[in-house]
Amino acid sequence: MATVGGISGEKGFQNSLDVEALAQFAVSEQNKKENSNLKFEKVVSLKQQVVAGTIHHITLEATDKDSNHKKVYEAKVWEKAWMNFKELQDFKAIGDAPTSS
């Protein structure tokens, strides 16, 4: 169980539809906010912080559909599940995605 206010790494998120839905929400909100054209690819890692709700720190891969360039992004999504509330707090590129060989 996470300590209130502390950030903890999460395991087993790879097959979580809830985590994937949060990542897709982050990409969709970023597309609306910045008029970008990103396509969600996959979740790379997840950390969570318990506050008044949960802040999900999601590292994800997304492809810019205009340039076909894949990058890694960090997104922060604040969620209060009991209120059906989600808000994208931060979304930033942190580098190019690893290439498959």
Automatic annotation (TrEMBL):
One of its GO terms (molecular function) is cysteine-type endopeptidase inhibitor activity. This is Cysteine proteinase inhibitor. Pfam families: SQAPI. Coiled coil: none annotated. The keyword Ribosomal protein does not apply. Residues 2-94 form the Cystatin domain. InterPro entries: Cystatin (IPR027214), Cystatin_dom (IPR000010), Cystatin_sf (IPR046350), Prot_inh_cystat_CS (IPR018073). Keywords: Protease inhibitor, Thiol protease inhibitor. The lineage of its organism: Eukaryota, Viridiplantae, Streptophyta, Embryophyta, Tracheophyta. Belongs to the cystatin family. Phytocystatin subfamily. SMART domains: CY.
